């Protein structure tokens, strides 16, 4: 390379009045490269221009007569891959445009402009940058490499990687060697990779896209899903389009088990996969029909794709509201919003849900804080109280509690009194009825007692009555 520069330098200075400039140009493979060449716009007649590449001969030349000529490799099948636009000559611009540059186009070029006895020569080093990935579509967990190739390579150049317009920090902590990044494929590697090369004050760049397929929902491991006690919740597990996992399964991980080798536990009774394992599907989500506070913890979804087991851990965070009576005399109580994991919670908000006669829902009494104190439980503040908990990215979830008017709380003294009055009236009526029944039974008893004191009289009365009945029967027969 140094020898080539030396040859061009010597050739330029041997000529009388020669001027020589050396320029670095970077171009991405497949793009258009512009090799600069300044020429004077004050020529009295048309100059001759010749573009050559070291070890490859003529690229393009124009004689003073205006006749043009292309090198055989630059005019394949009548297509002009290299040209100098005539419209730029009047501006003193004799730059060469090369379309759809290839790696083999990299090298040293010379632009020589001759007008009379004045010769101007520019030397340009064209370097082609190409970014390639070992597999454009990688499966999560497999090894993938992204390489940056520069032809010819500028020794001493600085290389920096950008991923989705942000500086890339190696996940393994090992920096790239000679422009090559090697990592285990994860969702963090998905996107546009850009290699930026800096050399002698010039900078070039090239890009390539890497797609990592696997479990796309949730997009990252240990995603938290929030649910209220008694509600139904879905644990998402969706694979990338085109990936149909086999042997898909769900497990609940035991508390305290490590992330590298988590120990499986028992799934809740209300746990239900969305689709049977006998019917492979992209969507392997599962649901809990009725969440219990004890159902909190980590769950793992897994499936085999192309011989690689893909997994995703999901943490279920359960919320509930606990109530306590702070003062029976004053009729006050406290509601506490409790979650099994508060690491992402930054704010609590209490909302009173009110319904009118038409069933329309409205919200009142918005308060902040994890604990809600109700100083007086009355008709105004009874009903639904909802605790909303939020994080940095917005509302995470909510849980609702129903406040009822209970004995011993505010407003219950009058209620208790009315209940006691009704009970006393009822007992009084019952006692009066029982007393009347006893009096009647006593009268009947006394009457029988008086009759039994004269048995002879009772016999006479009974005999007379029988004889009367006998005479009436005989009269009817006649």
TrEMBL record:
<keyword id="KW-0472">Membrane</keyword>
<dbReference type="GO" id="GO:0009897">
    <property type="term" value="C:external side of plasma membrane"/>
</dbReference>
<dbReference type="InterPro" id="IPR003598">
    <property type="entry name" value="Ig_sub2"/>
</dbReference>
<dbReference type="InterPro" id="IPR036179">
    <property type="entry name" value="Ig-like_dom_sf"/>
</dbReference>
<keyword id="KW-0732">Signal</keyword>
<feature type="domain" description="Ig-like">
    <location>
        <begin position="314"/>
        <end position="388"/>
    </location>
</feature>
<feature type="domain" description="Ig-like">
    <location>
        <begin position="218"/>
        <end position="301"/>
    </location>
</feature>
<dbReference type="GO" id="GO:0070374">
    <property type="term" value="P:positive regulation of ERK1 and ERK2 cascade"/>
</dbReference>
<dbReference type="InterPro" id="IPR013106">
    <property type="entry name" value="Ig_V-set"/>
</dbReference>
<feature type="domain" description="Ig-like">
    <location>
        <begin position="141"/>
        <end position="211"/>
    </location>
</feature>
<dbReference type="Pfam" id="PF07686">
    <property type="entry name" value="V-set"/>
</dbReference>
<feature type="domain" description="Ig-like">
    <location>
        <begin position="11"/>
        <end position="125"/>
    </location>
</feature>
<dbReference type="GO" id="GO:0035723">
    <property type="term" value="P:interleukin-15-mediated signaling pathway"/>
</dbReference>
<keyword id="KW-0812">Transmembrane</keyword>
<dbReference type="GO" id="GO:0042289">
    <property type="term" value="F:MHC class II protein binding"/>
</dbReference>
<dbReference type="InterPro" id="IPR013783">
    <property type="entry name" value="Ig-like_fold"/>
</dbReference>
<dbReference type="GO" id="GO:1990782">
    <property type="term" value="F:protein tyrosine kinase binding"/>
</dbReference>
<feature type="transmembrane region" description="Helical">
    <location>
        <begin position="422"/>
        <end position="442"/>
    </location>
</feature>
<feature type="region of interest" description="Disordered">
    <location>
        <begin position="255"/>
        <end position="285"/>
    </location>
</feature>
<feature type="compositionally biased region" description="Low complexity">
    <location>
        <begin position="268"/>
        <end position="281"/>
    </location>
</feature>
<dbReference type="InterPro" id="IPR007110">
    <property type="entry name" value="Ig-like_dom"/>
</dbReference>
<keyword id="KW-1133">Transmembrane helix</keyword>
<dbReference type="GO" id="GO:0045121">
    <property type="term" value="C:membrane raft"/>
</dbReference>
<dbReference type="InterPro" id="IPR003599">
    <property type="entry name" value="Ig_sub"/>
</dbReference>
<dbReference type="GO" id="GO:0042110">
    <property type="term" value="P:T cell activation"/>
</dbReference>
<protein>
    <recommendedName>
        <fullName>Ig-like domain-containing protein</fullName>
    </recommendedName>
</protein>
<feature type="signal peptide">
    <location>
        <begin position="1"/>
        <end position="20"/>
    </location>
</feature>
């Amino acid at each position: 390379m140094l020898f080539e520069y030396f040859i061009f330098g010597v050739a330029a200075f041997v000529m009388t009045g020669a001027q020589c400039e050396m320029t670095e140009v970077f171009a991405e493979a497949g793009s258009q490269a512009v090799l600069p060449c300044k020429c004077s716009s004050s020529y009295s007649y048309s100059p001759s221009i010749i573009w050559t590449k070291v070890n490859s001969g003529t690229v393009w030349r124009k004689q003073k007569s205006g006749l043009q000529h292309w090198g055989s490799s630059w005019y394949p099948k009548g297509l002009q891959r290299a040209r100098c636009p005539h419209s730029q000559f009047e501006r003193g611009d004799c730059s060469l445009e090369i379309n759809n540059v290839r790696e083999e186009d990299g090298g040293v070029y010379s632009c020589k402009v001759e007008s009379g006895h004045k010769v101007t020569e520019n030397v340009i080093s064209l370097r082609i940058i190409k970014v390639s990935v070992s597999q454009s579509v990688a499966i999560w967990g497999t090894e993938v490499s992204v390489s940056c190739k520069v032809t010819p390579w500028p020794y001493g150049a600085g290389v920096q990687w950008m991923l989705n317009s942000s500086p890339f920090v190696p996940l393994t902590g090992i920096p790239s060697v000679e422009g090559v990044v090697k990592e285990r494929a994860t969702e963090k590697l998905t996107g546009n990779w850009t290699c930026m090369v800096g050399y002698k004050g010039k900078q070039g760049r090239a890009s390539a896209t890497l797609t990592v397929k696997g479990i796309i929902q949730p997009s990252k491991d240990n995603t938290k899903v929030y649910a209220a006690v008694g509600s139904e919740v879905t644990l998402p597990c969706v694979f990338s389009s085109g990936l149909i996992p086999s042997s898909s399964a769900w497990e609940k991980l035991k508390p305290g088990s490590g992330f590298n080798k988590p120990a499986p536990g028992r799934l809740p009774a209300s746990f239900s996969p969305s689709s049977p394992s006998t019917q492979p599907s992209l969507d392997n989500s599962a649901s809990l029909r009725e969440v219990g506070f004890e159902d909190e913890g980590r769950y793992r979804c897994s499936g085999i794709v192309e011989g690689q087991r893909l997994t995703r851990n999901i943490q279920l965070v359960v919320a509930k509201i606990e109530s306590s009576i702070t003062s029976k005399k004053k009729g006050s109580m406290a509601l506490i919003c409790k979650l099994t994991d508060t690491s992402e919670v930054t704010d609590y908000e209490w909302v009173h849900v009110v319904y009118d006669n038409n069933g329309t829902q409205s919200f009142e009494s918005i308060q902040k804080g994890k604990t809600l104190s109700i100083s007086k439980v009355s008709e105004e503040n009874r009903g639904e109280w909802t605790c909303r908990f939020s994080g940095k990215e917005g509302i995470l979830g909510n849980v609702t509690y129903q406040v009822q008017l209970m004995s011993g709380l505010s407003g219950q003294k009058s209620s208790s009194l009315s209940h006691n009055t009704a009970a006393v009236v009822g007992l009084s009526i019952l006692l009066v009825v029982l007393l009347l029944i006893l009096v009647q039974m006593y009268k009947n008893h006394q009457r029988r007692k008086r009759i039994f004191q004269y048995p002879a009289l009772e016999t006479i009365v009974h005999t007379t009555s029988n004889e009367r009945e006998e005479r009436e029967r005989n009269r009817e027969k006649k």
